[in-house]
Amino acid sequence: MAALSIGYQFHFHFNPPNLTPLPTKFNSLAFTAKHPLRRHHIWCPKIYAPPAVSVMAFGSSREVLPPALDSSSEPPAIFDGTPKLYISYSCPYAQRTWIARNYKGLQEKIKLVPIDLKNRPDWYKEKVYPANKVPSLEHNNEVKGESMDLIRCIDSNFEGPSLFPDDPSKRKFAEEMFSHFDSFYKAVISSFKEDTVNDAIAAFDSIETSLSKFVDGPFFLGTFSLVDIAYAPFIERFQPFLLDVKNFDITTGRTKLAAWIEEMNQIEAYTVTKRDAKELLESYKKRFLSQV
């Protein structure tokens, strides 16, 4: 794997014209001044005096992604003390854990091991994770699964910026959003199979309301968190399918959701995990239109 530079990126928000990036002698810090505003980690309203600073942890997109392992592939060195995140590049559940790993700057701490789900190696089920699903995390001589549990595990057991707030009201709302995910997912999927999109409309109206809960930023909890990570891979897939097949633009009349999508697409830890929209669309068409 190519060497990776991990650090923090500071965005200084000024009203004057664009300032070009300044070189730095520090390996771990990169300073840039940008306009218009990019509000990644700490929400800064459009007030130009005094200047505000936002901080976003990042891992370079220059990470060389390994090829997916299939039935002909040899297993990695299992339980050798190196944490490993077993994923599929196409799986939204695995994408959650991939984003969390990236955002905390753990590209050199947690090895990425992609699995070909259409041609899974036998050793994955026999030696790594008997459930034979992704994602799974090998850490401290044990392997755990379930994406919601794993993003919490990655956040609480590894270094890097926290993805879960200390504010009790935000933590409470986060738990509510985690619990709400299944009903959100089922409502949207039901609209894939029906003539109307009423369930999807209601589901995204609920998302719009949830994004209005905290005014200190564009994300569910104001600042970027595990909640955004939990929902992003699925909204990434729902949006092109609903627009192309159902002629339903999820952002129409939903300014908070539109802003959230825009801000998510400024976070490198997420964008490097995204799939091509056309690829996602074709995949969902094959999956859902064949059932109609």
Automatic annotation (TrEMBL):
It catalyses: RX + glutathione = an S-substituted glutathione + a halide anion + H(+). Residues 81-162 form the GST N-terminal domain. The keyword Translocase does not apply. GO terms for molecular function: glutathione transferase activity. It comes from the Eukaryota. Keywords: Detoxification. GO terms for biological process: response to toxic substance. Pfam families: GST_C_2, GST_N_3. Its EC number is 2.5.1.18. Belongs to the GST superfamily. Lambda family. This is glutathione transferase. The gene is LOC107763456.
